[in-house]
Amino acid sequence: MSRQSHGHALACALLALCAVPAQPSYAQSPANAGQIAARTLSHAIIIDTHADTPQALLDANYDLASPDSPYMISIPKMRTGHMGAEFFSIWVDVAWPQQDLIHRALDLIDATDQQVAKHSDVLGLAGTADDIERLHREGKIAILMGVEGGHEIEGDLRTLDIYYRLGVRYMTMTHTKDDELGDSSGDKPRWNGLSPLGREAVARMNRLGMMIDISHVSDGTFYDAIAASRAPVIASHSSCRALCNAPRNMTDDMIRALAKNGGVMDINYYPGFLSDAFREANAKLEKQVEAETAAARAQAEKQGKRLTYLDEVEVERRITKDLPMPSLKDVADHIDHAVNVAGIDHVGLGSDFDGIDWAPRGLEDASKLPDLVNELARRGYSEQDLDKILGGNVLRVMRQVERVSREMQSKP
What we know:
By secondary structure, this protein is of the alpha/beta class. It folds into two domains: 27-275 and 325-409, Metal-dependent hydrolases (TIM Barrel); 286-322, no CATH class. Helix content is 50%, strand content 10%. The longest helix has 27 residues, at 383-409.
């Protein structure tokens, strides 16, 4: 090969390397990884942007301090997991009576407030990034809230103001069905993206300082929200479609657009969003699960009762117990992929704990988070990288959202 040809080949090779972002390495020895993880856990503020525990607080009178909790989130489990902040989801089923959506949401907010008041020695309500950091310094776990689904404002934008005053700091634009604000990933297009009211909602949320959450939305709604928002947006609990072809997950193009917007995607732990093998096997059992859950609900109603979250989970787990379960390493794979596509500044954690019937092996509840940190350290992530993924990226987005709010409110 001539010197010129050799130089040309070398240049092409360098260009190819530059075009493909480097994957996190597996270079850390177990001892080094353990040291990095331990140092990180000693100071990092771990923020989970989505857990559905409030429905248990309200419907099952669940006490977060329960030492033998059957739920994925509890104070002891959060303490063991070094949790710094949890966004509790204010979720109301899209099938809930339309005239009672706001009432149900307010009940869930109240149930959350009551737990924070009852356990004020350990928990504290947070409304800003500074609040989270202050509570962390005080040795407390910050509790925040996010409304899951635009249907919960019943088409009235003034409800956003009320939710914000009550501590809600993000709203998911849709849930599993299209609503007045836009199209859902789980429904047929109605608006082909955001509706006119949805665009107004984005502007109002920007002004309030409420994060726009694009988990659950259709691809069209996602791109419309990115274009409409003056502040970075979040995906509070979404994973990577390139690794698991679920419509709820984000394509690489969407992940890149989110990064360009300055936002953060928080990886969901639900097995059906992590693994195609689980998702496809689970899909074959969906009708059976729906039928048996409906039968259990009807039986409960005859007895004057309401089927709880744990009751429904028990039905589903009994039917799906032999499915191929992904593990903690699959969560790390999705984090790797998102970092590779978006960069280290745009990835976080959004477990969906207590809203999912199964969690991955090795990451069954909040107490297992140190094992995920160890796995990421083993894959070559530095302390600085881990600080960002575990919570720093969310804090950055919150501060940017707060800044946009101040700028908008300073103008008539």
